[in-house]
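Re: Re: token formats

Sure, here are both.
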Amino acid sequence: MLIGIEARGFFFGPPIALAIGAKFVPLRKPRKLPGKRREVISESYELEYGSDCLEMHVGAVQPGERALIIDDLVATGGTLCAAIRLLERVGAEVVECACVIGLPEVKGKFKVSKALYVLVEPRLEDCCLRSNANEKQSLDVNQKETNDLAAVSV
């Protein structure tokens, strides 16, 4: 089965589930799942700026089912870890996780215990090269301004 985490995981999850012939199960923030009278199971987790919670309908996942979790972005891994804990509490086997974007500068605060695949991740050396190029450009501009001032004051 394919598990999509709110909300952009819902963009990627259903087409993938359809393509592989698997069911799709959404994990949502509190009181956002459809069906007001349906019972839910939840998992709380910490964020960089506070705390949050994921909910899933009771019975949506059966013990022993294999799951792939998909989300749009992984930063600290807190949301993915909460999704893994929630699924394992109901007896599912989380096989791997996939995210479209990874942020390497903050990734890893929480250790995701399953295989994690990231489609797009900035390369640190590119960031450093851009930063160094911007610094060099700034130094060149400052040097030119200094030379221009020296020429005017002569």
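Second one below.
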Amino acid sequence: MCVLRFNYKSGTVDLLDHQLHPDLNNSKICKFATVIGSALSDYLEANGVCRGSEIILFEHRQIKFPWQSSSPNLPESGLITMMHMMMYDGNPFDHEDLRRKINRRYFVVQLTAALILADINTIRDEVVGKVNQFLVEKDDIWTRVHAKRKIKKILEKK
């Protein structure tokens, strides 16, 4: 996961990613940013934004953070990027809280809830309805899961 910031002030597309890209201009993420920038430019122009066409001229640059790595397989790297963006106050995000798995799980739940409950989420009511339905049925589900576990243990002993 990465965040693309179309920065009119600096005339750049800022890439905020967990992974360092040594050859940024030839990276997949840069190609992705170009496609998104072109689509955004078309959208802005179609909606009367006079500076919309400037986006396709923006240079790409990668913003560097102390928690980045050259490894493409970091666990929950998107979470680190999202938390950095949420907590950004002009200083680098102290990601030490994310070293413990229990903390990462907590932040995933927190972010998921924020996204589901956001006013711009067009399916929010549908998702909340399903969660409410689950809360009503969870005891029945737990009973069935617990019974299956007991049966499995009994069969394993034989």
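The chain is about 50% helix and 10% strand. The mean pLDDT is 83.
- S.
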